[in-house]
Structure formats: structure tokens, C-alpha cells
Automatic annotation (TrEMBL):
Biased composition (Basic and acidic residues): 1251-1265
Disordered: annotated span: 1232-1300
Pfam families named in the record: Sec7, Sec7-like_HUS
Molecular function in Gene Ontology: guanyl-nucleotide exchange factor activity
Residue ranges, compositional bias (Gly residues): 1236-1247
Domain SEC7 residue range list: 353-537
GO biological process terms on file: regulation of ARF protein signal transduction; vesicle-mediated transport
Classification via InterPro entries: Mon2/Sec7/BIG1-like_HUS, Sec7_C_sf, Sec7_dom, Sec7_dom_sf
Name under which the protein is recorded: SEC7 domain-containing protein
GO CC terms in record: cytoplasm; endomembrane system
Length: 1300
């Protein structure tokens, strides 16, 4: 009763407003008091009285201020009632009746009616002009609705329906706000019937009304609609797949494309919120981009979010730019999160997505009117009229206009395939009655404008429809005319440019179609129905969800498409595909964030985004995208490198963070980094190259440019700038050649001469290609921060120049490791890297364009780096060596001496490291051979390096092929001409031959080796005789190897002659050591030769020119008969012993070949005469020691005894020799007693020593070391070389030949 009384005070119009206010205040207090709880049993009755009071409260006669207060009290009171007693009022029974309109049974008004009466009162009455009341009313109603939805009010459907309908009637943003609150409080799954109604309501009328309102101008509407779409996605996305594709396309993307600036800001904010939602992007990608029937919504949303990331056309403070850059960072973070997910799929990808991408390529070709689109389609489109028709009918994204053109192309005789496709296309339709069938036919393509094309389409449709049993028509012509007439009517009624009074009326339409069906009229009702049907609904091409809705009439058609459900997608399943399809857009976003950074935090965010991008590319194995990022970072780094020089690095704190103890901490913002963005980019790029060196491809080009710039400014770490070189005998690095000094000096001078240290602009490694590619990006000028007195930088870093700082920072990245790591990739990857490093074009003398002054130095560095990559993997060197070979060939053809020097060092070093005697040797030896083509005047200054390299090769490698030795000897001959390389060559040959001479001998290059060694022996090169003695020993060793191998063979005789001639000349020299060694080695060599292995004329030449002309005896001091002869007695004696021994060995063979009589016999006798004369000279040249006399006597005795053997009796040569020797000695005053028992004087024929005695004497002489043993063997070298080989076996019978 008390409540009834209070209610009457509120509803009676005669009651003043102050009384109404007091009554409502009392009601509020009553509800808030404990007393009210005692009446819970009659709560429904009290609530009904309260509702009547509120609903019938009048505001017309109350002042504005009083009305505001009273309405506020009503709303507060209602909120309190609902919050406190909703459970009792509403109940929680799940068996609620189906959704229906409120108060339909005539009972008391429902709670939803109360809410909306209050809400409409707030909006529509005069008091809505009060902001306080509006805001308060909205707040209170929101609380009411939340409470109702939280308690699962059975009238949720009614509330939503009222809100959805009212929001397009009053166009009030408050309805949208309430709808959003309803959706936020909505939970589905409690009641099936109610849930089905709510879902249907949201899918249909709610979506339609939201799409309508989205085209209303006003930021309030836009903001609320975007918010509602986001809320709906969170709550109902699994139930509204089609609707959300329409929403995002027709609202978000449409606004970003053509909305106002404010609306675009709101759309970007909405997308940012959407991205921050867990799994949102993953589910969008998994449900749309991987669905053949849907658009690539994920890609479209990301591209829309990044639309304004570049600020070139806007001011830096544009909110859209800021939001787009935040979006780039957020999307990149999302990529990394998905990478870390346990379900992350690093490789592969969705087969459906791959097919979709392939189909898209076909669609693009078709849409661009490419005549060969069918050939490019492959197995995706069946190569038949039926297959093409099915493709055009079913495939999403085909241009409707192009489809219409394709189907209508004619005439039939000229385009028979297109006509077949058209009739096949018509078989895919499901025909019902006339107009629905015509609508279905025209649904999927846009009608061409040409009348002939329309005619062909309508004719084909009429034939197909009539064949299907058209009930409305008697003839096919009637169908054709009516179809054409419908097209005209549709255009007439819906042309927006036509005035209404001029449009066709129903009577006009009926009159125009008289007698078209075989002369008969069609049913009037049928025609009138067609007219009104067309007037009510225009024939339109079907709109797809991927196309933005621009016409309200298209909305219903879209929403009528069969609904589909979204599926649950695991977070990391599509991680790689999701990143790959947006990678270019993300990279552009990261670049914009970095380039636009003015604050240190922004610069750090930009670098972090790049690093995340690189990690994603590395994790997913995306080489192309990774290299795009490296190229971009190095572009920034290159611009910074141009500023490096002797200037002081201004920001000590920044330097400390980059070089100090915690320089590797990437999570800390670099103080002052915004002023050194290029340096940060360079550091990030180098770190990525080191970490993922195997993925770097075209990024190497840009990396080299940065390295070249740093090298020219002395800012490149030693590990990269120092090139591999050879050392001298003590292990010290060889001094720089004048070519290197000139090249590096030229580069330094050029850098100094360029303003601001601009470096190799316009020249460089690729002739400034980067400037063309990258344009003119420049490091923005950011003023350095003020000096900080408490800088953490240690003293070692203070005052450091930018060159020193960059050298340290780059050094920390250990880029040299990157080149080694790159070699561990696939063979194809290594080949690519080497090719990139070597792809510079070497200038030849025919070129007219002068290279940059830095070019030679830079090309040398690239060659060095390429060789490091090649040497790092011996297993694949055979595949990459041809690249080096071709590059070196170009270098040798050029005219850059320092580059040729580096090429020689690289080749010899590579041979040393890679040679294992296998297949690589043939390839390498051909390349090394090119060193021989370097100009001799240039070799003079690089001979030490070539010699040192050859020295290492000869010491460590074993060669067995003639080709290999020929090339090595050519290189040795070239280098030996110059003193700086000669010593290395000789010691290398010495070590090689000391190990084994079989290699050079077995391949038939022993004589070639001897010819080279003879140059050392004779001092052919600059008169250098330092290695003459040792080289003669080596010649003896090589000849010994030739004999052991069964030689000398054909062709070796000339070598024997050269050896003898050379040694013969050396025996006459002033250097005693050289003379003695020449005599000894000549005797050794001739003693090893089998007489029959050398041609007769060769022997005669050796005797005539060498053996029979020993060194002469000269008087050099004293006078008169008591003069002292200073004679190299050992040399003279050794030569005579060699002569005598060789004569005894060869004469039997020469007698057989030349004959004992006649001309040949005379020649041999003359040789014997000369031998006798030489013995006489020796005997008469007595020295103080008597050594020459005694040695000669022993040789004479030996020859006389041997001449008495059976072998020398042929032709009487033996007897003649014995006689001549004895005669000459007798003339010299030698007593006949030396010949022993029975010795005969000149011409005597006494018995002489018996054959047995002769043999005993010969054996004794051989045991004592031969005829050179005079003087008791005390003289040095007297017994080292006997007339006979002491190792030879004794004669077994008189017919045996003496063998040395």
C-alpha cells in the first residue's frame, strides 16, 4: 500500500514536480534499506507498481532542471532494483519460452520494455540536450542490461531485437553503445532455442543494420560500429564466418581506403586491438586465407593496417602514421610469438593455400586478358569447354566484366571455343521459372555494353531455358525476346540518372511485349509480375564477401549466402605461411619505423623489428626475404660508412654501449642511437649475416660495398682487411710490393680528396649501382646529446675517432666467421657466394672508362674473401674452382698489376691448401699456369711472392704428370729470373728432389728439370752463382734417376750433351769449388751411362768438345825455370780420369759402330792421340806435390793394361793406343820401368805382363779407387771418383766389358 501511494504521487499529473522528486527519493531509500528485504515475497507486486509509476511519469510540465534530476533518480532506482533483485524477478529457469515481443500477452510490461521506454525518454524528449542526463542515463541503462545478460534473462532476444531495430530508426549512437554492452555481456550455450534466435538475429538483421550505419558519416557511429564488430568477433566468431569477412571488407578496409582521416584513425585503432587479441590473426588466416571460397582476409587486414606506415606524403605527427608503425611492430611480435609455439610448423605449408595461390595466378592472368592464360593454368583448369566454364562459374575473384566479355565473344564461326564455353556454362545452372533462372544466369558476370554481345548471351540463355521445358512460353523466340526485354526494363527502372516520370510503366511494359511468343501474347499477370519483381529488386551481379559493399541493395544478397562456421586453428600451425605472405609489407613497415625514428626508443624499436624479422626468416628458411632485409639494413649502413673518418665519436655513452662490457645486450635502448641509426643498422646487419651466413645471397653485394668503404677509411678490422700473404725463410711477412703501396695509397688519397669522406661515389665495386637501386636515402641529422660529466665510458674509449669506433664495433661481430660459416652451406650456396664476390668486371686495355681509384684495392679484397669461402670447404672446391679460374683469366687479361699480384698469391695459396693429388690438381694446375702470362716487368716486383708460394708447393706436393712438371718448371723459370724469387725456387726444388726424383723422371721430365738446374749452375740469371755447386749435385741425382729408370732414352741425349758442355765450361772457371764440383759431377754422370744407350755421333761430339779439351794448365806466378805453377790439379786430374774412363768404356762400342779402319778408325785413333798428348802435358806439368804426375801415371798404366784386352784388338785400336801412350810418356821422360815385367818400349813387342797379370792389376786398381789414386790418396778428393765404379763386379772372363 505504501508503494502504491508513492506510485500515485509519481504518476498523478496534478502532483508538483517537487513532490514527485520526494516520492522517488523515498523509493530509492526504501530499496536500499534492509526493511525492503522483508517484503521479498511480494516483490513481484511491488515491482509491477514501480514499473507503472515509472512508465507513466510525465515530464512535459516539469522544468528542465527538475526533469533531469527526476529522470536520473528513475534510472538509478531501476538499476538498483535490477541489480539487487534480478534473480528473484527473472529466475534462472532454462525452460524459458521462445523469444517473442514483449507484452504480447497484455500482461504487465516486461523489463525490456521498461528499459527502452526510459532510454527513448532520455534520447527523444526535450531533456536530451542535457549532457549530464544523457551520460547518466546511458551509464545506468548499461548497468541494467549487463545485469540482465549476466543473469541470463529470458528476454535477451527481445532486448537485442529492440536495440537492433531502433538503432536504424533513430540513428542514435546510444543504441549502438547499448548493443555493444549487450554483446559484451552475451554468453551463448545456455538455451538452444534462445541461442538459435539470437544467432539468427545477429547474422541477419544486426549485420545488415551495422553495414547500413557504417556508411553514415560521423566518428561516433564509426567508433561504436568498429567496437561492436570487434566484440562480436570475440563472442561469436565461430558462428559468423561470412559476416566477418563482409564486416572487415566493407567497414575496416573500406574506411582505410576512402574514409575520412578521423575514421581511418579509428579503423587503425580497431585493427590494432584486433591484433592484440590472442589467436585472432591465426584464426582469420586459418579460416579465410586457407579457404578456396574466401578472400585472403588476413593479408588484406595486415596490408590495411600498414597502409599509412610510410610518412612521405604526410607529416610526421600524423596519427595514422604512428598507428601503422605500431601495427608493424605488433604484427612482427606476433610472428615471433607464433614461431615459439609448440605447434609451429617451420617448413612446408598448407596444400590448400598453395593451390589457392596457384589459382590466384591463373585468375590474375585471366583478369588481365592474357591470351595464354589457359596454357599457364596447367592442371588447375581442364583444357576443355566444360572445364573452362566450370572455372569461370565456380572460381572466386574472376573479374565479372572479363567473364562477360569472354562468354559473349563472337561470332561463333570466329570464336567457336568461346561459344562452346557459353553453352557449357549454361548447363551449370539450376533452372526453375523464367525470371529466377535469368537472374541466376546474370548473377556471376557483368553484361557487356555491346548489343551484339548481349544478343549472343540472351540467345544462348533462351535456347537453354526452352530446352529445359519453359512453361511460360510456346517458342524459344519468345524466351529470347522476353529476356532481352527484361534487360531493357532493368536498366530503365534502376538507372539513377533517369527522371522518374520518364521511366517505363507497367502498361508500357505489357504493351511492348505483345505478340512476342509466336505471335501470341503472354499472360498479362505474368508480365505484370515480372515488372513489379524487377522494380522491387534490381538484377545485379552477385557481390562477394571480399568486395566492399557500396550499395545498400547488395547487403541482403550477401547475407542470403549460406552461412559457414569458423574452425579452431592451433596457434603455430600456419606460422610460416602467415609470415611469408606478408613479409614484404612487414619489411616496409620495419623500414618506416626505423627511418622515421627521432627518439632513441623508436630507433631501438626499429632495429628490434628488423632483428625479429631476420630471426623469422632464419627460422623459416626464407632466403629471399632475409636478403631483402639485409640489403635494406646495409643501405643504411652504407650511408653511415661514408661519414666514417678521423673525426671524434661524439657520444661517449652510446660508444660505451656499443663497445663496452655489455655491448651484446640487445634488450637495452642505445642512448643516442637515434643519431647513429646507420651504425645501428650496420651492426644489426653484420650480426644477422654472421648468424645466418648460409642464407645470404644478393646481400653479399651490399655487404662488400660497406666493407670497401670501411677499408678505404682504415675502419675495417684486421681479420678482414689483412690479406693472406707468404713469408720469407725466417717466417716474417714479405714486404709490400710497390704495386700494393700504390694501390692503397691511391685509394687513401681519393678518399681524402672527396668532400666529407664521401668515398667511392660513382665508382666503387659495381660503379655506384647501389645509388641507382637505393636512391638518395640519407641519415637524418640528429643533434648529439649534451656531454655528460659522469659518462660510464672508460678512458680508452674517450676521444676515439669514428674510424676506430666502427673498426671495434665491426670487429665484435666477427664477420670473418661469417665467410667461413657461409662455406658450410650447400655447394650451390657456396658457388653463389663466390660468384657474387667475384662478379666485378676487370678493366682491360680496350676499355675506355677508367675505373675508380679504389677499384683495384676493392677488387683485391673481394678476391681474398672469395678465396676464403672456397678454401673453407675442400669437399666442394671442385665445383667452385671454375668460377675462380674464369675470374683470374679476366684479371690476367687486364692491366692492374696489384690485382694480378693478389691473383697469383691466391692461386698458389689455394693450390697449397687444396692439393691432394686428386681431381682438383688438374683444375688448379691449369689456373696456376696463367701466372706465366703476367708481364715480366711486373713479375720482377712480385717474384718473391710467387717464389715463396712455389716453394711451399714443391716442398709439400708430389707430382707425377708431365703437364704438372712443365707448368711448374715454366713458373720456376719465370720467377728464377729475378733475385727476389730465385732463392725460394731453388730451395723448393732442392727439397722436392731430395725427397724423391722418381716423380720428375718417371714422367719423362728429368731432362727438363736438368735444363732448369743448369741455369742455376751456369748463373744464367744475373750471373748469380750462389747455388751453382748444389744445383750440380742435384743434376747428378736427377741423371742417376734417369739411368735407374732405364735411361737415357730417346731425347735425353741432348740433355747429356748440355750437361757435359755446361760442366766443361764450369771446370775452367776461377771458383775452385764450382770447378771441382763440375768435374766430379761430370765424371759421375758419364760413369752412369751405358755406351750403347747413346748414339755414336753424340759420343764423338762429347769427346771432341768436352773430354778431349780439359782445363788448361796456366803459369800464374814466378818466372824462369823455377816458376811455380798454381794449378787446380784436382780439376785437371778429375777431367782426365773421366776422359780415360769414358774412352775405355765407349771405344769398344765406337769400334763396332764406326769400324776399326777407314774414316771411323782414323777418327778413333785421333782421339787416342789426343789422350796421349794430354797425359804428356800432365806429366810434364810437375807440381810441388807431385799429385798430378802420379795420378796421370796411374791412369796411363790403367789404359795400357785395358787396351791389351780382347775387346780392343778389333781394328788394332788397343795396340795403337798402348803404343801412343807409351811413346808420349817416353818423350816426356817417363822411364819404361813403369810398365813392369816384359814391358816393351815404343814399338816393342815383348811379351809384357800376362793376361792374368793384367787382370790382377786392373782388379787392384779398381779396389784402390782407380787411376786417380796417385799420391797415396792423401790429397782431398783424389779417391772420391775412380776411373772404374768400385761397386761394379769383377770381370768373369776376358770378354766381359768394363761397366762403370
Amino acid at each position: 500500500m505504501y508503494c502504491n501511494f508513492l506510485s500515485s504521487l509519481c504518476t498523478d499529473p496534478r502532483v508538483p514536480g517537487t513532490v514527485t522528486y520526494d516520492a522517488l527519493t523515498v523509493l530509492v531509500r526504501l530499496i536500499n534499506s534492509k526493511v525492503f528485504y522483508d517484503f521479498r515475497g511480494k516483490l513481484k507486486v511491488i515491482y509491477d507498481l514501480y514499473m507503472d509509476a515509472v512508465l507513466e511519469t510525465k515530464f512535459e510540465e516539469i522544468t528542465r532542471t527538475s526533469s533531469d534530476i527526476i529522470l536520473s533518480l528513475i534510472l538509478t532506482l531501476t538499476t538498483g532494483v535490477v541489480e539487487r533483485f534480478s534473480f528473484d524477478l527473472l529466475g534462472t529457469s532454462s525452460s524459458s519460452p521462445p523469444p517473442s515481443s514483449s507484452s504480447s500477452d497484455g500482461g504487465p510490461p516486461s523489463l525490456s520494455s521498461l528499459h527502452f521506454t526510459l532510454f527513448k525518454q532520455t534520447v527523444n524528449t526535450t531533456i536530451t540536450s542535457s549532457p549530464l542526463t544523457s551520460r547518466h542515463g546511458l551509464t545506468q541503462l548499461t548497468l541494467i542490461i549487463k545485469c540482465l545478460f549476466t543473469n541470463n534473462c529470458s528476454s535477451r532476444y527481445d532486448i537485442l531485437k529492440l536495440v537492433i531495430r531502433e538503432m536504424v530508426v533513430d540513428y542514435s549512437d546510444m543504441y549502438l553503445s547499448v548493443l555493444n554492452d549487450c554483446l559484451e555481456s552475451l554468453t551463448l550455450g545456455e538455451g538452444e532455442e534462445e541461442e538459435e534466435g539470437i544467432v539468427k538475429l545477429l547474422r541477419g538483421e544486426c549485420c545488415k543494420n551495422l553495414l547500413l550505419l557504417s556508411q553514415v558519416e560521423g566518428l561516433e557511429y564509426t567508433s561504436l560500429i568498429l567496437r561492436i564488430i570487434f566484440t562480436m568477433f570475440l563472442k561469436t566468431r565461430n558462428l559468423m564466418k561470412l559476416q566477418f569477412e563482409i564486416f572487415f571488407t566493407s567497414v575496416h578496409l573500406r574506411i582505410l581506403e576512402a574514409g575520412s582521416v578521423g575514421a581511418q584513425v579509428l579503423a587503425l585503432e580497431s585493427l590494432l586491438e584486433f591484433i592484440d587479441s590472442p589467436k585472432a590473426l591465426t584464426e582469420v588466416y586459418g579460416n579465410y586465407d586457407v579457404d578456396l571460397d574466401c578472400s585472403n582476409l588476413y593479408v588484406s587486414l595486415v596490408q590495411g593496417l600498414l597502409k599509412f606506415v610510410d610518412s612521405d606524403q604526410r607529416t610526421e605527427d600524423d596519427e595514422r602514421t604512428r598507428l601503422s608503425r605500431l601495427g608493424a611492430i605488433a604484427v612482427m611480435e606476433g610472428v615471433c610469438v607464433r614461431m615459439q609455439d609448440a605447434n609451429c610448423v617451420v617448413s612446408g605449408g598448407s596444400e590448400v593455400k598453395k593451390k589457392k595461390d596457384r589459382i590466384q595466378i591463373v585468375v590474375d592472368n585471366f583478369n588481365s586478358r592474357n591470351k595464354n592464360w589457359r596454357e599457364a593454368a596447367g592442371d588447375l583448369v581442364e583444357d576443355s569447354a566444360e572445364g573452362v566454364a566450370r572455372f569461370l562459374f565456380e572460381t572466386k575473384g574472376v573479374d565479372r566484366t572479363v567473364v562477360g566479355e569472354y562468354l559473349s565473344k563472337g561470332p561463333k564461326e570466329k570464336y567457336p571455343f568461346n561459344t562452346s564455353v557459353l553453352y557449357s556454362y549454361l548447363t551449370l545452372l539450376e533452372y526453375t521459372t523464367f525470371l529466377p533462372s535469368l537472374r541466376l544466369f546474370l548473377l556471376r558476370f557483368r553484361m557487356p555494353g555491346e548489343a551484339q554481345c548481349i544478343d549472343r548471351l540472351m540467345e544462348a540463355f533462351s535456347e537453354a531455358y526452352f530446352e529445359k521445358g519453359a512453361k511460360e512460353f510456346k517458342t524459344g523466340d519468345g524466351v529470347f525476346v522476353m529476356a532481352f526485354s527484361i534487360i531493357m526494363l532493368n536498366t530503365d527502372l534502376h538507372n539513377p540518372n533517369m527522371e522518374d516520370e520518364k521511366r517505363m510503366t507497367v502498361e508500357d511494359f505489357v504493351r511492348n511485349n505483345r505478340g512476342i511468343d509466336g505471335g501470341d501474347d503472354l499472360d498479362r499477370d505474368f508480365l505484370v509480375g515480372l515488372y513489379h519483381d524487377i522494380k522491387g529488386e534490381e538484377i545485379q551481379v552477385q557481390q562477394t564477401a571480399s568486395e566492399a559493399v557500396t550499395d545498400v541493395r547488395q547487403i541482403d544478397g550477401l547475407l542470403k549466402q549460406s552461412p559457414s562456421l569458423m574452425v579452431q586453428v592451433k596457434e603455430g600451425v600456419h606460422a610460416k605461411d602467415m609470415f611469408e605472405c606478408i613479409a614484404p609489407d612487414l619489411l616496409a613497415g620495419c623500414a618506416a619505423v626505423f627511418e622515421g625514428a627521432v627518439e632513441d626508443e623508436d630507433a631501438w624499436e626499429g632495429i628490434r623489428s628488423f632483428e625479429r624479422y631476420g630471426e623469422a626468416c632464419g627460422g623459416f628458411g626464407m632466403e629471399e626475404e632475409f636478403n631483402d632485409m639485409i640489403v635494406l639494413l646495409l643501405r643504411y649502413g652504407r650511408e653511415f660508412c661514408r661519414t666514417v673518418g678521423p673525426s671524434i665519436f661524439k657520444n661517449e655513452e652510446c660508444l660505451y654501449q656499443l663497445l663496452g662490457e655489455n655491448a651484446g645486450d640487445c634488450e637495452k635502448v642505445v642512448v643516442g642511437g637515434a643519431g647513429y641509426k646507420g651504425l645501428l643498422a650496420l651492426r644489426a646487419a653484420l650480426g644477422m649475416v654472421k648468424r645466418y651466413a648460409g642464407m645470404v645471397r644478393n646481400g653479399w653485394v651490399n655487404l662488400l660495398e660497406c666493407l670497401f668503404l670501411l677499408r678505404s677509411r682504415q675502419a675495417l678490422p684486421d681479420a678482414l682487411s689483412e690479406m693472406e700473404d707468404f713469408a720469407d725463410a725466417e717466417g716474417s711477412r714479405l714486404p709490400n710490393s710497390p704495386f700494393r703501396e700504390r694501390s692503397e695509397g691511391r685509394a687513401r688519397e681519393y678518399v681524402k680528396g672527396v668532400d666529407g669522406g664521401a668515398g667511392s661515389e660513382g665508382g666503387g665495386f659495381w660503379g655506384g649501382i647501389s645509388k641507382v637501386v637505393f636512391g638518395g636515402w640519407e641519415e637524418p641529422e640528429v643533434p648529439p646529446p649534451p656531454p655528460t660529466p659522469d659518462s660510464p665510458a672508460p678512458a680508452a674509449l674517450r676521444g676515439m675517432t669514428t674510424a676506430e669506433a666502427v673498426k671495434g664495433i665491426v670487429g665484435r661481430e666477427q664477420l670473418d666467421v661469417a665467410f667461413a660459416t657461409a662455406a658450410n652451406t650447400s655447394p650451390a650456396g657456396r658457388a653463389f657466394i663466390i660468384k657474387v664476390l667475384l662478379q666485378c668486371r676487370i678493366r682491360t686495355p680496350n676499355d675506355e672508362v677508367e675505373p675508380s681509384p679504389c677499384f683495384e684495392d676493392q677488387a683485391s679484397l673481394s678476391l681474398e674473401l672469395a678465396s676464403r669461402v672456397l678454401l673453407s670447404s675442400k669437399s666442394s672446391a671442385s665445383q667452385t674452382w671454375p668460377l675462380l679460374h674464369d675470374h683470374v683469366a679476366n684479371i690476367i687479361k687486364g692491366d692492374l698489376p696489384y690485382l694480378q699480384e693478389r691473383a697469383a698469391v691466391v692461386l698458389l695459396g689455394a693450390f697449397f691448401h687444396l692439393d691432394d693429388g686428386g681431381e682438383m690438381r688438374d683444375m688448379m694446375i691449369d689456373t696456376v699456369k696463367m701466372i706465366c702470362f703476367i708481364k715480366k716487368e711486373w713479375v720482377r716486383h712480385m717474384a718473391d711472392r710467387i717464389g715463396s708460394g712455389l716453394n711451399r708447393i714443391l716442398k709439400t706436393s708430389t707430382f707425377a704428370k708431365a703437364k704438372e712438371w712443365d707448368i711448374l718448371f715454366d713458373l720456376c723459370s719465370l720467377t728464377g729470373e729475378f733475385s727476389s724469387g730465385r732463392g725460394y725456387i731453388f730451395t723448393g726444388l732442392q727439397n722436392c728432389l731430395n725427397e724423391s726424383v722418381e716423380g720428375v723422371v718417371d714422367c719423362g721430365r728429368g731432362v727438363r728439370c736438368i735444363a732448369l738446374l743448369l741455369k742455376f749452375s751456369k748463373g744464367d740469371w744475373e750471373g748469380d752463382m750462389r747455388d751453382s755447386v748444389e744445383s750440380m749435385k742435384m743434376i747428378g741425382d736427377v741423371w742417376s734417376g734417369i739411368v735407374d729408370a732405364g735411361g737415357p732414352k730417346a731425347g735425353d741425349e741432348r740433355g747429356l750433351v748440355e750437361i757435359c758442355s755446361c760442366f766443361h765450361e764450369l771446370t775452367k772457371g776461377k771458383d775452385v769449388k764450382v770447378s771441382k764440383m763440375a768435374a766430379e759431377q761430370m765424371g759421375r754422370i758419364l760413369s752412369l751411362v751405358q755406351p750403347k744407350s747413346v748414339a755414336c755421333e753424340v759420343w764423338t761430339s762429347i769427346f771432341r768438345n768436352v773430354l778431349l779439351n780439359p782445363p788448361a794448365i796456366h803459369m800464374v806466378a814466378g818466372g824462369g825455370g823455377g816458376g811455380v805453377y798454381v794449378v787446380n790439379e784436382e780439376v785437371r786430374v778429375k777431367c782426365c780420369e773421366t776422359m780415360a774412363r769414358t774412352a775405355l768404356l765407349c771405344f769398344p762400342y765406337l769400334v763396332e759402330e764406326m769400324g776399326g779402319t777407314g774414316t771411323g778408325g782414323d777418327e778413333l785413333k785421333r782421339m787416342v792421340d789426343r789422350i796421349a798428348e794430354l797425359f804428356k802435358e800432365n806429366v810434364t806439368a810437375r807440381s810441388n806435390t807431385g799429385f798430378i804426375f802420379e795420378s796421370t801415371i796411374h791412369s796411363c798404366i790403367n789404359m795400357v793394361n785395358v787396351f791389351g784386352l780382347e775387346e780392343f784388338k778389333k781394328g788394332g785400336l788397343g795396340a795403337y793406343g798402348k803404343t801412343r801412350i807409351k811413346e808420349e810418356l817416353k818423350r816426356a821422360g817417363v822411364d819404361d820401368e813403369i810398365w813392369g815385367e816384359g814391358g816393351a818400349g815404343p814399338g816393342g813387342d815383348g811379351p809384357g805382363p800376362s793376361q792374368e797379370k793384367k787382370r790382377e792389376q786392373v782388379a787392384r786398381v779398381r779396389e784402390e779407387g782407380g787411376g786417380g789414386g796417385g799420391g797415396g790418396g792423401k790429397e782431398e778428393g783424389a779417391r772420391e771418383n775412380s776411373a772404374f765404379d768400385p761397386s761394379a763386379p769383377p770381370l768373369s772372363n776376358p770378354q766381359d766389358t768394363f761397366v762403370a
